[in-house]
Amino acid sequence: MDVLNKTIAVLPGDGIGPEVCREAVRVLEAVGEKFGHHFTFETHLMGACAIDATGEPLPTETLEACFEADAILLGAIGDPKYDNNPAAKVRPEQGLLKLRKSLGLFANVRPVTAYDVLLPHSPLKNDRIAGADMLFFRELTGGIYFGEKGRDENTAFDNCTYSRYEIARIAHLAFQAAQNRRKKLTLVDKANVLETSRLWREVVQEISLEYADVAVDYLFVDNAAMQLILNPRQFDVVLTENMFGDILSDEASVIAGSLGMLPSASVGERVALFEPIHGSYPQAKGKNIANPIAAILSAAMMLEHFELYQEAELMKQAVQEALDKKILTPDLAASGVAYGTEQVGTFIAYCVLDGAVDVALPHKVNMEVGLSTII
Ligand SMILES: NC(=O)C1=CN([C@@H]2O[C@H](COP(=O)(O)OP(=O)(O)OC[C@H]3O[C@@H](n4cnc5c(N)ncnc54)[C@H](O)[C@@H]3O)[C@@H](O)[C@H]2O)C=CC1
Ligand SMILES: CC(C)CC(=O)C(=O)O
Ligand SMILES: [Mg+2]
Questions:
Q1: Closest CA to 66 of 90, 102, 34, 37
Q2: What do we know about how this protein assembles, alone or with others (predicted)?
Q3: Is residue 115 a part of any domain in this protein?
């Protein structure tokens, strides 16, 4: 077995970011210990914490460290003091967008799975979502988030632009993923209204000729939003532009049980980045209630990126063990007492190290599940 040395740039960010990152690092350390790999973690500032410390949401030192690293693990960024101040000149989100653009991270891959053990407490109809398993390919460095924007007192605009090149490069990745899955690709767009969407359709139709074994269908985004909840099993690979992918994947997280369950990998021209799809959930900061599984599964995607497939599989099995044994944070716990972020992460790390059978259940934290904890 090859032993790897990897340097991982860790950007914990704001809110719950540091808490969920800590658990992902804990589990990666367990993988390193078990298999003999050397993971070096280097922590850097990004987001609101970076603005507070340096005036910049993405300090040069952080960006340079990301270029040098073998992979990047990101928690989340964002803080209400910027969200609630429309006049703020510098925003944490600018740092994230700049990082994605600078690293050429044009494809954000977001897997969504309905976990059987979580079905009984789902707000969705179990018989509709059981077995749902889809993979989002969200374009990440173009579209309306990156277009020219502006405003005067009474008017504001955000431009949405896409080029053939930007569409084609992610479309190829999505088709290749579909070939390795159930061979279906759904393009989600708004081609009845948007010129950019018509270009997406045109390019995807052309590229589909190179992937004759993949069935392609096309859905308008408004319909797709409904179909996701009504009949999610119809989806295999979902390809879409930046903003639609952002919104639909948060919606799809309900199928998985919680926003705290969905991981992602952002890949492109250089080093890859791994992050949970959720934000900084500021209401939960410091309360030890955030679900760390999205961050931990993002770390598992990092291991797959390093081609450490056995290690990644073990990590995913450890997560499944936590779900099976109901070692759940309040967002997933149906009633009664839940576990803390740290307890869930520690349990998963021990499962990686010792195998599930030998791991004692962690002590429950005194955390009554109630609306006050699930804001
Ligand atoms: N990639 C990133 O860093 C992202 C940053 N943001 C930023 O995060 C801040 C908060 O944004 P929101 O719209 O409130 O989105 P959010 O994703 O932070 O939270 C929305 C809701 O999802 C649930 N949730 C999120 N993460 C969870 C977790 N790990 N465990 C359990 N429940 C979880 C909570 O109920 C929460 O109220 C904003 O400043 C926003 O700009 C939002 C999305 C992505
Ligand atoms: C700054 C936003 C685009 C972050 C976000 O919501 C995401 O990437 O999912
Ligand atoms: Mg989002």
A1: 102
A2: Homodimer.
A3: no
pLDDT tens by residue, 227-282: 999 999 999 999 999 999 999 999 999 999 999 999 999 999 899 999 999 999 99
From 256, 282, 314, give the residue that closes a domain.
256
291-328: pLDDT as tens digits: 999 999 999 999 999 999 999 999 999 999 999 999 99
Nearest CA to ligand 1 atom 4: 279
Residue range(s) defining the domain that contains residue 142: 123-256
Number of alpha carbons in the 13 Å side-chain half-sphere of residue 53: 15
Single pTM value for the model: 0.96
| Cβ atoms of residues 15 and 279 within 8 Å | yes
In CATH, what number is assigned to the domain containing residue 154? 3.40.718.10
Per the annotation, the verdict on 190 as an active-site residue is yes
Are the beta carbons of 42 and 62 closer than 8 angstroms? no
Best CA proximity match to 259, nearest among 328, 331, 319: 331
- Choose the final residue of a domain: 256, 274, 293: 256
118 within domain boundaries: no
Catalytic residue, chosen from 246, 316, 339, 350, is: 246
Tell me, yes or no, whether 156 lies in a domain.
yes
Does 249 lie in the same domain as 167? Answer: yes
What sections of the chain are H helices per DSSP? 17-35, 48-54, 60-68, 80-83, 92-102, 126-129, 164-179, 195-208, 221-230, 242-256, 293-305, 309-324, 341-354
The strand pair at 71-76 and 5-13 is best described as parallel
At position 13, the amino acid (one-letter code) is G
The interface pTM score, or ipTM, of the predicted complex is 0.99
Same-domain check for residues 207 and 286: no
Please confirm, yes or no, whether 250 is among the known catalytic residues: yes
Are residues 96 and 206 located together in one domain of the fold? no
Instruction: Give the span between the Cα atoms of 171 and 175, in whole angstroms.
Output: 6
Atom number of ligand 2 nearest to Cα 242: 3
